Amino acid sequence: MSQNDKKKGFIELGKFLSQFSEAENSINPDVLYNDLFFEDFENLIQLSQSHNGWYTPENVYFSIQSWAKALTEGNLDKWLSSYNFNEEKSKNVGLILAGNIPLVGFHDFLSVLISGNNVLIKTSSNDQFLLPFLSKYLIAIEPEFANKITFVEGKLENFDAVIATGSNNTARYFEYYFKNKPSIIRKNRNSVAVLNGDETKEQLIALGEDIFRYFGLGCRNVSKLFVPKGYSFNAFFEAIFEYQDIIHYEKYSNNYDYNKAVFLMSNFKLLDNGFLTIKEDNSYASPISSVFYEFYDSIENLQIRLLSESEQIQCIVSNNLVENSIDFGQTQKPNLWDYADNVDTISFLLTI
């Protein structure tokens, strides 16, 4: 199977996904195999929340649209132009996927196949339907993918390398179990925002997207704010008020009530707007419906700290206050070349 055939398959998949959005599902007659897949995928999107209560149609559509925009010929060419692919024998790469947000493991799936390897996939119990469906579409476009994609229900076996995503606790198990195989083991990470009080209302509204998208369940969600001493949160609360409807989702509301009660019983000082609590805390990982904050004395010192603790951080949001930060509202819109944990997956796959 040529590199061009593999790329073509994913480009066609991107075109298929582009038909589905929260505003409207609209059939494009130029997209292949809509007669076989369009209606079933439309139904699957609507059923996703029954499979996983966090997978609201809004968030599933957001993920689908993100991948539709990523899987273009221009993006794929730009991403892959940095690598030298060869036609050596394919290796079997096992994927142990998380299920915190819709299609969270798709980039690894794409990377394994586009690099010429075979993929053995163990899905999360929280996300068992979307990726298998998209795999069927890929196989319809390029039948040779059928010999390169395997979904595993039991024990992962007969693999040459593995990419496993989980918590810090499961990572210890993965590191032991896969110690004799080339591996990428992903642990807990969180994202942060660095503010200085000069942010516009529009930037703070966009920061709300970084916080609330996927209910804050992703490693790219901002879970902590670094602010200067004396910082007033009034403008922040005013800007994010337009996300207030999130409290109407039962699972989020239950977490808000529970975590707020725990904080209050522990006599923690909180800021609260009725759908988000803000708590001063040194940790990076805040619970659902809460964001931690910490004061900094200087940007220079903060940058040194963030660099020293980079293994805990997925991405940093700021108005160009610190190096390698990204714009507000962009955390859940990574490019194909924005690798999780800054580990180049393609380079790893080309060396196994």
Helix fraction bin = 25-40%
Number of helices: 12
The proportion of residues in beta strands is 15-25%
Low-confidence sequence ranges: none
What structural class do you assign from the helix and strand content? alpha/beta
Report the biggest beta sheet as strand number plus sense, adding barrel if it closes. 6 strands, mixed
Basic shape: globular
- Order of neighbouring strands in the sheet with most strands: 8-9-10-7-6-11
Cα(first) to Cα(last) distance is: 19 Å
The helix-strand sequence is: HHHHEHEHEEHEEHEHHEEEHEH
β-strand number: 11
**Overall mean confidence score, pLDDT:** 96
* Radius of gyration based on Cα positions: 21 Å
Describe the protein's architecture and organization.
The chain is α/β, with parallel strands linked by helices. The protein has helices at 3-17, 34-51, 57-70, 73-80, 106-114, 130-141, 168-177, 201-212, 234-240, 250-265, 299-308, 345-351, and strands at 92-96, 118-122, 149-151, 161-165, 183-186, 190-194, 222-228, 270-272, 277-280, 290-296, 313-318. It is globular and about 60 Å long. The two termini are 19 Å apart.
Keywords:
alpha/beta; six-stranded mixed β-sheet
What topology does this entry show?
Elements: H1 3-17, H2 34-51, H3 57-70, H4 73-80, E1 92-96, H5 106-114, E2 118-122, H6 130-141, E3 149-151, E4 161-165, H7 168-177, E5 183-186, E6 190-194, H8 201-212, E7 222-228, H9 234-240, H10 250-265, E8 270-272, E9 277-280, E10 290-296, H11 299-308, E11 313-318, H12 345-351
Parallel strand pairs: 1-2, 1-4, 2-3, 4-5, 6-7, 6-11, 7-10, 9-10
Antiparallel strand pairs: 8-9
